[in-house]
Specification:
The chain is α+β, with helices and mostly antiparallel strands. Among the domains are: about 75-195, Beta-Lactamase (2-Layer Sandwich), CATH 3.30.450; about 340-395, no CATH class; about 435-610, Heat Shock Protein 90 (2-Layer Sandwich). It is about 50% helix and about 20% strand. A hairpin with a 2-residue loop joins strand 3 and strand 4 (about 170-180). Helix 4 packs antiparallel against helix 5 and helix 14 (about 415-430) runs antiparallel to helix 15 (about 440-460). It is elongated, with a radius of gyration of 48 Å. GO terms for molecular function: phosphorelay sensor kinase activity. Keywords: Cell membrane, Kinase, Membrane, Phosphoprotein, Transferase, Transmembrane, Transmembrane helix. Its main location: membrane. This is Histidine kinase. Pfam families: dCache_1, HAMP, HATPase_c, His_kinase.
């Protein structure tokens, strides 16, 4: 019972209320839910992608730093095994002369190659197990024994971290020497590095507008930072514990100004930690702004759609309410009411049907005594109208079906020429019944013309058809239906047949110009006299009263009796489309400067150019020349 009661209440609602509920329920609510889910997921995705990008960035930075220290270690290999170094390590402090001699040899022969091109080395020291040491560059001011005590027995190469040589910050690297004969520690190489390579690595990384990158050594001291005042400072123990807890990760740190996303990566080579700090608002600022813009645009579109649909439903229901009031008045006997007939949609048709119904009722009341006679007369007139319509029109489908039947018989009997000609003729009929002012592409026009050539080649076996167009350009060239075939027919009729010449050549050459696309129709028959060509030039230029062009359209043709005269001479041009007709149709659809130009006409042949517009301009590889070429066989 409750369901039936609810159904009755819903059925009693007005159409406007139902449409509003449906629009909000089926359009507004799903879009709102989808937008909310999209907002949440896009925010999560943007933040995740930004974190992954920054994590990969500091991972690569750590890789660059490890590669730098590995290269530095490899550069010490030649020193470890060099005979001069081995001799220096075995010297006694009392061998003063040998000590000076070997030091000099090391400085002159060995160290220049090691220092060549290296601006990152601040100082260089060699210390033997006998306590002998030699210093180069700025080395020597850091107490060597203090550094050597930090090197474990099983370590041969260690990065000690940041130290101060006076007021100069340096990073010290220790390399242990081995006595290749006694297999014990022979001494050490101590290399002091300036901050240039570390500053260069950090400066190449951009993290938002205010984000920064820092390098922390294994002791928890800051090696590199955008603020030089922090170099050598130790970070808080609780923060260092988090950074040492795992190889890489991230956490959020709140400051007075902003909430920072801290991401870190610890090197497995020396324990150094690469740390990036970026404000969360800058992490994916542009992407978030784009997301917000998209959300606002989507919301505005939804509101706009709801308003449009609401206005449309209101307009629709008001029209129905008006019709409902008129029907109520007609129901009460007021039969002179009329519904508005300005609309052409379903409501308009309903209004017209209502008006017809009211008028019919009024007519029946007024002429009830002659209703049967009127009905019979109306039926008779309807039948006569149908008969006249059937007699005055030829159903194109009848022609197509007839040609298809002929084609079927030809195929069954194996007479392929008849089959080909009927198929081509059917295609010609199908294309010709369209609107002559309809805009098509040149590709469609030439496809239609190929059917025409199929028929002509059956008549003239020696005919050569030369089509040179770019098949990639044709879909972008605009044309009008049936503008090329009349010009080709003129070439057959007035270039060849009128002069009792067998058609031998028809050419269609396409070319891209700055002002459009030119299709040239070329034949090798007899042309028109110069004065007639001049008259047509004036006619096509828009001056039909200047001379010969107008009179040729009225009484003659370009080559004697061209179909161009059909526009003003129906008896002579019935069933043909003249040159002026083609030119006028092109101008009517596309305007100036498009149309026909008789480029050349004489004893050696005629060339007629058709200038057509582009829909678009593809790349001009060859300017549209050289597409396909057709050559017919010889006359049998």
């Amino acid at each position: 019972m409750r369901i039936q009661t609810l159904y009755r209440r819903l059925s009693g609602l007005s159409i406007q209320t139902k449409m509003n509920v449906l629009i909000i329920g089926l359009l507004g609510l799903p879009f709102f839910i989808f937008g909310l889910l999209w907002f949440q997921k896009s925010t999560e995705t943007i933040e995740t992608n930004a974190r992954q990008y920054n994590q990969e960035l500091i991972r690569q930075t750590g890789g660059h730093l490890d590669s730098y220290f590995r290269d530095l270690e490899r550069s010490t290999f030649p020193l470890v095994s060099h005979p001069l170094i081995q001799q220096f390590m075995s010297l006694s402090p009392t061998d003063t002369f040998e000590l000076v001699k070997i030091k000099s040899a090391i400085e002159q022969e060995l160290l220049p190659n090691f220092f060549f091109g290296r601006t990152d080395i601040y100082g260089f020291s060699i210390v033997s197990r006998n306590g002998i040491s030699t210093n180069y560059g700025n080395a020597g001011r850091i107490f060597a024994a203090e550094l050597l005590d930090e090197l474990k027995d099983d370590e041969t190469y260690k990065v000690m971290g940041l130290r101060l040589d006076g007021s100069t910050p340096v990073v010290t690297v220790i390399r242990k020497f081995w006595d290749t004969q006694a297999y014990q520690t022979a001494g050490f190489i101590i290399i002091d590095l300036n901050m240039t390579p570390f500053s260069r690595i950090v400066s190449n990384i951009k993290l938002g507008q205010t984000g920064h990158l820092s390098i922390i050594d294994s002791e928890g001291k800051i090696v590199e930072h955008t603020d030089p005042a922090l170099w050598g400072k130790a970070i808080p123990e609780e923060e260092l514990a988090v950074l040492r807890s795992q190889t890489e990760g991230y956490y959020e740190k709140k400051t007075e100004q902003d909430t920072m996303l801290v991401m870190y990566h610890r090197s497995a080579l020396n324990g150094w930690i690469i740390v990036s700090e970026v404000p969360l608002r800058e992490l994916a600022g542009k992407l978030i702004a784009m997301r917000n813009i998209s959300l606002w645009v989507g919301s505005c579109l939804i509101v706009f759609v709801l308003l449009v649909l609401g206005a449309f439903s209101l307009h629709l229901t008001r029209s129905l309410q008006l019709l409902q009031r008129l029907m109520y008045r007609a129901e009460n006997g007021e039969l002179n009411v009329l519904a508005p007939e300005k609309r052409y949609d379903e409501i308009g048709r309903l209004n017209r049907s209502f008006n017809k119904m009211v008028g019919e009722i009024r007519r029946l009341i007024e002429v009830v005594h002659a209703s049967e006679l009127k009905e019979k007369e109306l039926e008779l007139r309807q039948k006569e109208a149908m008969l006249l319509a059937m007699q005055s029109q030829i159903n194109p489908h009848f022609l197509y079906n007839t040609l298809e039947a002929i084609n079927s018989y030809a195929v069954v009997e194996g007479v392929l020429p008849i089959s080909n000609m009927t198929t081509a003729l059917a295609d010609l009929f199908r294309y010709s019944v369209g609107d002559p002012k309809e805009a098509v592409t040149l590709e469609e026009e030439l496809r239609h013309l190929s059917s025409y050539f199929e028929i002509q080649k059956e008549r003239y076996r020696s005919l050569e058809v030369d089509i040179r167009t770019d098949e990639h350009v044709l879909p972008y060239v605009r044309a009008v239906r049936l503008i090329v075939q009349p010009i080709v027919e003129n070439a057959f009729t007035h270039g060849y047949e009128k002069h009792k010449l067998k058609p031998s050549y028809i050419g269609l050459h396409g070319e891209i110009r700055d002002n459009g696309y030119v299709l040239s129709v070329v034949d090798k028959g007899k042309g028109m006299p110069p004065e007639r060509k001049a008259g047509y030039d004036r006619l096509f230029a828009g001056n039909p009263d200047a001379g010969g062009g107008a009179q040729y359209e009225r009484g003659s043709s370009p080559r004697g009796s061209d179909g161009a005269s059909s526009a003003a001479h129906p008896a002579a041009g019935r069933g043909r489309i003249g040159l002026s007709n083609v030119h006028q149709r092109i101008r009517l659809v596309f305007g100036e400067p498009y149309g026909i130009t008789i480029r050349q006409s004489g004893e050696t042949g005629t060339r007629v150019d058709i200038l057509l517009p582009f829909l678009a301009r593809p790349a001009r590889s060859g300017d549209g020349i050289g597409g396909t070429r057709e050559n017919s066989g010889k006359d049998g």
